[in-house]
Amino acid sequence: MPCPSDSAATPARRVSVDPRGPVLVEGPVEVVLDDGTVVRSDRFVVAVCTCRRSRTYPWCDTSHRPRQRAVPPTEDGNPR
Description:
mainly beta, two-stranded antiparallel ribbon
């Protein structure tokens, strides 16, 4: 638990949690991975993946979004 004196010296980071998406963190951000590797992003807002589907993990690449076909198939299953 942080000491009250620590909060005055260090500015707080804002974190936004989306239950269906990534965690948004005001950057810059350093993330420590399971294997101890530290990755850093200097962006002003960073999307951290929580679903682990991202090809750029730990950064979100929107892989959590459901994919939809642009044109629905016809009744026989063939594209129009």
